[in-house]
Fold this sequence. Notes:
The chain has helices at residues 65-78, 117-126, 145-169, and strands spanning 4-8, 19-21, 26-37, 41-49, 51-53, 60-63, 86-98, 101-114, 132-140, 175-189, 212-224. It is α+β, with helices and mostly antiparallel strands. Strands 1, 2, 3, 10 and 11 form a five-stranded antiparallel sheet that branches. The longest helix has 25 residues, at 145-169.
Amino acid sequence: MKNLVICLLLTTKLFGQDAVDDNQKKIKVTGRAQIEMEPTSYILDIMLRENYITANKAPEIVVGIDSIENNLKKFIRDMKLDSKKLNQLSVSNSASSFMGQEIILITEVYEYKINEYAELKKVVANINFPGLAGIKVRKIFEIDKDAAEAKLYVAALKNAKIKAETILSSVNKTLGEIIYIDSYDYRYSLPNFDDDYQSNWDNRQVDLNRKKTISALVNVTYEIK
C-alpha cells in the first residue's frame, strides 16, 4: 500500500486496562498502532476576481476577468504546467459600491490537479499575477480502507504481545497463548480523506501539512504460564 507507514506504539507501562491477574493466571493488555499517511495528490483551487478603482469618480474596472484569465493561462505556460489539468469550478457576481454608485465584479474559481508535493510547493511559491484573489489546497488521500484496517489490527496485536511479554518479564513470568480478543473494544479512526481545506483564501500562507494518521487499539487477554 503506497504512502502508508505503520507505527507500533511501544508503551510498556501499566496504563488503563493493562493488568496482571495472578489469581486467574492471565494478563490483559491494550495494543496500539497507527498508520501515517501522505496525500496521493493535490488540487489547487485558484480564485480570480476583477479589480476596480474609484479615484473620486464612478467605480471603474481596471483588471477585467478576460485579462485575469489570460494572466492565469500565461502563468500555467510559464511554469510549464499541463493546461489540461486546469478546470473552471464556478463563476459568480458580486456588487460593490462607491459614493452611491454600484459596480458588478466577476469572481471565478479554477482548480488545478497536482500529483507531486514538490510541484505543489513550486506552484504555491510562484503564483502571483494581477487579479489573483487567493488559493486553497485540497489534499487527496486514496486508500484501501479494508486493507489498512486489517494491517492496523495485525500491528496492534503485535504491539499487545510485546507489551505483555515486557510486563511479565519484569516479574519473571512467561506469556502463554491468547485467551480471547475483546473485539468490542477494538477501535479505529478514519479521517475525512476528501480534503483538508484552509478556513480562508490566502495566496501565500497555504497549509501544506502533508500527513494524516489512522489509529487503532485492541484489548487482548493472554494466559500466564
